[in-house]
Design a protein that fits this description.
The complex is a heterodimer of chains A (about 110) and B (about 110). By secondary structure, chain A is an all-beta fold. Chain A is built from no helices and eleven strands. Chain A starts with a strand and ends with a strand. By secondary structure, chain B is an all-beta fold. The chains are: A mainly beta (about 110), B mainly beta (about 110).
């Protein structure tokens, strides 16, 4: 089955810096890659997603890139702010008719210092 | 607020006991998912239902069972509880059942087994 690896496990940056989180997946057929942000004790919230027919997607300070050949995708956050501090999870899902089984990475704890 | 409602928010119970976690999906969503989040296992997919039908199973123990009712709410039953079952259990929902449908998470049910 699908396996997702995520790095780094922790990332500390100064406010205003950029942050990059990287994930690799094992199933070359996977075609949907969402990113979730989870604040302490809260629910995971979708912040951006990308489908396999697209190489890059941006939403204000957040961007995701996908390299299907290398089977990896990355989250880029520019001009980081203290409120970006949270745990970020990448996920992948193989194309299966009739069900969706998101496989999550192990998470990256991002700390943005003022 | 994602629109996914889970009860109870917190639950403390003893080993060997049985508990039921309840979930109401977002209005209009037909698919319900259950995920388990523990410190050492990350976010693990347990099971998915779509319009009352079981669609996919993940790493769900035989002691655990779930169902989705005609009104689309879902229940996760955990029995013969062990200390290791202590975790945050998330319910999530989406409109459709297939990959690419955005999955929205509820606030979770914190289960502590003592």
């Amino acid at each position: 089955g699908e396996n997702v690896e995520q790095h780094p496990s922790t990332l500390s940056v100064q406010e205003g810096d950029s942050a990059v989180i990287k994930c690799t997946y094992s199933d070359s057929a996977s075609n949907y890659f969402p990113w979730y942000k989870q604040e302490l004790g809260k629910r995971p919230q979708l912040i951006i997603d990308i489908r396999s027919n697209v190489g890059e997607k941006k939403d204000q300070r957040i961007a995701v890139t996908l390299n299907k050949t290398a089977k990896h995708f990355s989250l880029h956050i520019t001009e980081t702010q203290p409120e970006d501090s949270a745990v970020y999870f990448c996920a992948a899902t193989p194309p299966r008719r009739g069900f969706q089984k998101l496989v999550f990475g192990t998470g990256t704890r991002l700390l943005v210092s003022p | 607020d994602s629109g996914v409602t889970q009860t109870p928010k917190h639950l403390i119970t003893a080993t060997g006991q049985r508990v039921t976690l309840r979930c109401s999906p977002r209005s209009g969503d037909l698919s319900v998912y259950w995920y388990q989040q523990s410190l050492d296992q990350g976010l693990q997919f347990l099971i998915q239902y779509y319009n009352g039908e079981e669609r996919a199973k993940g790493n769900i123990l035989e002691r655990f069972s779930a169902q989705q009712f005609p009104d689309l709410h879902s229940e996760l039953n955990l029995s013969s509880l062990e200390l290791g079952d202590s975790a945050l259990y998330f319910c999530a929902s989406s409109v459709g059942e297939s990959p690419g449908n955005t999955i929205y998470f509820g606030e979770g049910s914190w289960l502590t087994v003592v």
